[in-house]
């Protein structure tokens, strides 16, 4: 009997990325390095009346490693929820996607989850040009090397990376000649990453991707996962800001700031990390706050942070099916299929335009 690797053969006309080197091909799609100037973003956020620092501080290579360590914690329920849904529904998800598609994952992705989806597509003989989009070249290269090593025996799956922001990706789809030959684009957005944005921001971003695909004459859809847990005690345990891997990840932002500025701007001993569960807004919010008044003389001007004053840096929405439906409609999509865990605390949503 022939193996999957022996029977699946790609259509040469479909493969957008013709390279066959051992390392995945990375394309730098950044329009402006200013968009990734985290130091300026920190300065700008600290000068506002409601202070904040960019959440991107969490997502360099070291931060991604700490996040992956957090996902191994027993209290971090999203990982097991996603795995449950994917293992039970991977073939149905694959059946719902076109036989030929470009699959663009927003973020480096979790190797295990991405591997499940790509393997299911491959076993059905579907031809996929996969791209992962991330701002960290090193994290992207490391992740894609591992993914390509796992997928080498599936010739219908091609793996590449795009270095840049989500906005850079929108522009790339609009103007990249190669995408004009793609029959369709599926955006993969897992790990509840969609809910690191506000509902309005998520809707606007998905709408921008839809418009870019319309401009390029390409059909598009989203496969998005979203956390709908409303159990406050469960959330507090999962997002514990004081102990364990969750604490290490959440405090990584202030350590990153110190590296950016080459000084201990945030002295670890005098800064707390706290979280709030806003039930009405259905989201976890995370803040840094000092135990004493702190004053800095920065290039942009003097900044004072008073004792207990909160600096926002991280959001994780907890959106149910109704809320996801509203977000989809506002961005020009509709929910066409939903797959949930047994407790209906987590869902994967296929959004069609």
Tell me about this structure.
The strands form three sheets. This protein has an eight-stranded mixed sheet, with helices on both faces. It has a three-stranded antiparallel sheet with strand order 7-8-11, with helices on one face. β2 (100-106), α5 (111-123) and β3 (127-134) form a beta-alpha-beta unit. The protein has helices at residues 4-7, 38-46, 61-71, 77-95, 111-123, 137-151, 166-175, 199-216, 232-238, 244-250, 252-261, 321-330, and strands at 25-28, 100-106, 127-134, 157-163, 184-189, 219-227, 271-278, 283-290, 294-298, 301-305, 311-317, 334-340, 346-352. It is built from twelve helices and 13 strands. Mean pLDDT is 90; it is low at 1-21. α4 (77-95) runs parallel beside α5 and α5 packs parallel to α6. It is of the alpha/beta class and 353 residues long. The protein folds into two domains: 23-32 and 77-229 and 319-352, Vaccinia Virus protein VP39 (Rossmann fold); 40-66 and 231-317, no CATH class. Helices cover 38% and strands 25% of the residues. The chain starts with a helix and ends with a strand.
């Amino acid at each position: 009997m022939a193996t999957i690797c022996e029977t699946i053969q790609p259509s040469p006309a479909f493969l957008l990325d013709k390279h066959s080197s051992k390392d995945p091909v990375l394309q730098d799609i950044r329009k402006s390095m200013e968009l990734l100037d985290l130091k300026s973003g920190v300065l700008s956020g600290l000068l506002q009346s409601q202070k904040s620092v960019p959440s991107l501080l969490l997502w360099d290579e070291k931060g991604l490693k700490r996040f992956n360590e957090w996902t191994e914690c027993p209290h971090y329920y999203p990982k097991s929820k996603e795995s449950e849904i994917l293992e039970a529904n991977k073939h149905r998800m694959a059946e719902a996607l076109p036989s030929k598609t470009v699959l663009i994952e927003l973020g480096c992705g979790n190797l295990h989850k991405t591997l499940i989806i790509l393997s299911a597509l491959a076993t059905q003989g579907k031809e996929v040009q996969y791209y992962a989009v991330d701002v960290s070249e090193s994290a992207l290269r490391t992740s894609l090397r591992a993914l390509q090593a796992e997928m080498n025996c599936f010739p219908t799956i091609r793996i590449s990376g795009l270095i840049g922001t989500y906005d850079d990706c929108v522009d790339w789809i609009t103007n990249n000649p190669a995408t004009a030959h793609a029959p369709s684009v599926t955006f993969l957005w897992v790990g509840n990453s969609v809910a690191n944005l506000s509902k309005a921001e998520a809707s606007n971003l998905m709408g921008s991707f839809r418009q870019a695909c319309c401009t390029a004459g390409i059909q598009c859809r989203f496969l998005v996962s979203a956390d709908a847990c409303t159990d406050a005690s469960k959330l507090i345990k999962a997002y514990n800001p004081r102990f364990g891997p969750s604490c290490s990840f959440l405090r990584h932002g202030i350590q990153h700031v110190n590296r950016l500025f080459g000084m201990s701007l945030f002295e670890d001993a005098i800064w707390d990390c706290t979280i709030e569960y806003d039930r009405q807004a259905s989201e976890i919010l995370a803040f840094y706050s000092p135990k004493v008044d702190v004053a800095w003389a920065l290039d942009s001007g003097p900044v004072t942070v008073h004792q207990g004053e909160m600096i926002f840096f991280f959001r994780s929405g907890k959106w149910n099916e109704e809320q996801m439906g509203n977000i989809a409609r506002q961005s020009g999509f509709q929910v066409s299929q939903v797959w949930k865990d047994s407790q209906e605390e987590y869902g994967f949503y296929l959004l069609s335009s």
